[in-house]
C-alpha cells in the first residue's frame, strides 16, 4: 500500500496517569473511527509534573503504569498502530526515562526509544529547564518497521540535532515522529521551521503531536501539532493549543520522489577538522 492514514493526538496532559488516560482515550477512539491506521500521542502522554519529587512519587514502570497499559489495551481493541509519543516511566535502576513506545495492533510493545538529548537551558524569558536532573538520556537511535514504511523515533528537543534525523533516514526511515511538549517561547520561534528543515533534509514525513496550553503543574506548552511532507510542505496542522486530533492520509511514494529529486542522503563526504 502506498497510502497511510495517520492521526496526531494533541493533549494537555494532567498530573496523574489515570486522568491522562481519560483524556487520551476518547481522542484516540475518534482518530480510529475516522480511519487512522497509525496514531501518535505527544511527549509526556501519561504524566507531566515538573516538580521532581512529585514526579518520582508518581512514576511507575511501563508495565505497571495505568495510562501506558490502558493505551496498550486500546491499540489492541481498535486494531491500530499506536505510538505513545513518550511516557515518563521508572527504570529498573530507580531512575526515570522519557520513553517512546510503539504498540502494534495486537497490543504488543514492539519498539521503544529513550530521549537522547536533554533540554537543559536558561531561556531569555527567565524559564529554566534541567531535564538531566530527572531523566537518564538514551544512548541508541530507534527505527521501527511498520507494514509499508519504516519510522524513526525522536522526542522534542531531539529536533535540534539534525545528525540524528539523518541517521534515521539513512537507516531507512521514511516517517519520523517528533512528539513534544515545546515551551511557548521556543515554540513560537522555532517549532515549525525546525520541523520543516528536518523533513526537507531527510526527505521524510515528520509527524509532530504536541502538548498544548497551561498544565496543572504550571507549565505552558505550544501545541500546534503538525504533519510535514518530505518536500517540506505542511500537510495538516492546527493553529491552537487545545486537545484535538490532526489527521491526514500520507502518500508514501512522496518519500522516494523527494529523495530522488535531492539525493543528499547519498552525497556524504568525509572531511577533516575543524580542531575542537
Describe the structure.
The strands form 4 sheets. Strands 5-4-3-2-1-16 form a 6-stranded mixed sheet. Strands 8-9-10-11-14-15 form a 6-stranded mixed sheet, covered by helices on one side. A two-stranded antiparallel sheet has the order 6-7. With 276 residues, it is α/β, with parallel strands linked by helices. The radius of gyration is 18 Å and the shape is globular. The protein contains 6 helices and 16 strands. The chain has one domain: Carbon-nitrogen hydrolase (Nitrilase/N-carbamoyl-D-aminoacid amidohydrolase, 4-Layer Sandwich), CATH 3.60.110.10. Helix 1 runs parallel beside helix 3.
Write a concise synopsis of the structure shown.
Helix content is 27%, strand content 29%.
Quote the average pLDDT. Answer: 95
**Cα gyration radius (Å):** 18 Å
Large-scale geometry: globular
- CATH-assigned fold name: Nitrilase/N-carbamoyl-D-aminoacid amidohydrolase
**Sequence stretches where pLDDT stays below 50 over 5 or more residues:** none
**Fraction of residues in H or I helices:** 25-40%
Report the CATH C-level class.
Alpha Beta
Tally of domains: 1
Task: Identify the CATH architecture.
Answer: 4-Layer Sandwich
Q: Count of helical segments? A: 6
Percent strand equals 25-35%
Q: Going across the major beta sheet, what is the strand order?
A: 5-4-3-2-1-16
Superfamily (CATH H level) name: Carbon-nitrogen hydrolase
What's the total number of strands?
Answer: 16
